[in-house]
Structure formats: C-alpha cells, structure tokens
Amino acid sequence: MLVPRSSWEAITISSRWAALTKEWPVCYDVVVHYLIGVDEAGRAPLAGPVSVGAVIVPETFDVLKMFPEVKDSKLLSPKKRDEIYEEAEARMKTGELSFCVRFADHAYIDEFGITRAVRKAVQRCVSALSSSPEGVRILLDGLLYAPSRYEQETIIHGDALVPIISLASIVAKVRRDRLMTKFAKRFPNYGFEIHKGYPTELHREAIRRFGLCEIHRVSYSRKFALR
User: Fold this and answer.
1) Residue 75 gets which letter from DSSP?
2) What residue ranges do the domains of the chain occupy?
3) Which entry of 37, 71, 133, 221 is 20 to 30 Å from 17 by CA?
C-alpha cells in the first residue's frame, strides 16, 4: 500500500517506511540477505547524461538510523547532499555498504531515447553491485525496473518513502552535478555549474546565443536553438 501524497507531510519518513514494508508479500522461497535501492537523476536536462545510483546494504542495516537526514535528493540543499554523499563514501570504506553510479550519455539518449538509456544504466548499476540475483531484493523508484532475474519492487514516490532509495537518489544526483560542474569548465558559455543542464531561462538563452555544444541532447534542445 502506498501512502497518499496528501498525507506525506503529516507523518515521518520512518513511519511511512514502516507502513510500506508491512504490505510487502512474504516470499518464503526467497532468502534475502541484501537490499539494493535504485534511483535516477537527470532525466529532464537539455544537456549531459542521465545518472542512475544504486546502494546495497545488508538487510539488517538501518539506513534511516545511519543517515537520519536522508530524503529525496530534490528536497535537500546541495551542501546537505554533499554531506550525506561523503558519509556514504566513508561507510563504504568501512565495508558497511556499497554504492555505484552509472551514466548513459547524451548521444545514447538521442539515439535510443531516455527510457532505454535509464534502463541500461540501471542494469549496469545492479550488475556492478550484485552479479547474482541470489539473496538480493531490489527496491526501485518510480517506473524503474531491474533485470527480470532479480527479486524486485518498484515503488511510486520511493525516493520520498524508502530511505535506501532516497540514498540512491542522493548519490546519483551528487555524482551527476559534479560531472556537470566539470563540463562547465570545458563549455564555459552555458552555465552548467549553475543549472546542471536543466532548461532554465539562463540555459535556454545561452543556447539561443551560442547554439548547441557537444554534450547537448539534440532531441531535447534543438527547439531552443531555432528560436
């Protein structure tokens, strides 16, 4: 059962998570030792890749306890996202968890579309963290799907409801933002360090003035270049 959007602000993330997990079916033939959370960032930008983050933890690992400020990356400041990301990196070094981020670049998006690009990045993330489906349960945000051989559940608004998906959204967002900041040095006319490729007025005006650069998604951006 998914918690209605209208009640989100009235209850804590921990109670939402408890309510959600109560409704999971019990699969007696599946032994779960690890959970993987998956989310994406950068579906809508006019430039740069789409990013998928995945986090794997033992089933006994309490993400919300270890990361009490974790929530959907879109609701956090850049500074707070960076702090949580650094904490995740520290915990990865101690072996408490692991995570990875994979990208599908602008050219792949133009050729095959965003849905296939995201699917490819999800597959690469999941395979990097667990090449075998044995003992693994995957929780994915929105309309994301892992390869069918894995035990999995897709949860609408999972980035707001499920802490491990929230953490995946943060690692995906931080890594993509850092990449776009690097691209800003290579393509200084577009302000990528500010808007990270999203279709802000600043970005649209830069496209009108300078045209498209090498990392623009032509299928997304062409209409702005022609105005």
Assistant:
1) G
2) 10-185
3) 133
73 contact partners, CB below 8 Å, separation of at least 6: 39, 41, 81, 159, 166, 169, 170, 172, 173, 174
Q: How far is CA 13 from CA 57, 95, 160, 168, 222, in A?
A: 19, 26, 8, 16, 41
Per DSSP, 216 falls in state B
- Give the rounded distance of the alpha carbon of 200 from its chain centre: 21
| Fold classification of 10-185 (topology level) | Nucleotidyltransferase; domain 5 (3.30.420)
β-bridge partners, 47: 216
Angle at 123 between CA 141 and CA 155, to 5 degrees: 15
Four-residue CA torsion sign, 123, 126, 129, 131:
negative
Measured CA to CA, the distance from residue 10 to residue 179 in angstroms comes to 36
Angstrom distance (rounded) from CA 120 to CA 123: 5
Give this prediction's pTM. 0.86
In which residue are the tokens 């999800």 written?
A: 122
Other residues' Cβ atoms within 10 Å of the Cβ of residue 29: 4
The model's pLDDT over 175-188, given as tens digits with 9 standing for 90+, comes to: 999 999 999 999 99
Type and span of the H or E element at 223 = helix 218-225
pLDDT in tens, 26-73: 444 445 699 999 999 999 999 999 999 999 999 999 999 999 999 999
Q: How far apart are CA 157 and CA 159, in angstroms?
A: 5
Given a contact cutoff of 8 angstroms between Cβ atoms, the answer to whether 53 and 97 are in contact is: no
Q: Is residue 76 within 8 Å of 84, Cβ to Cβ?
A: yes
pLDDT of 224 reads 86
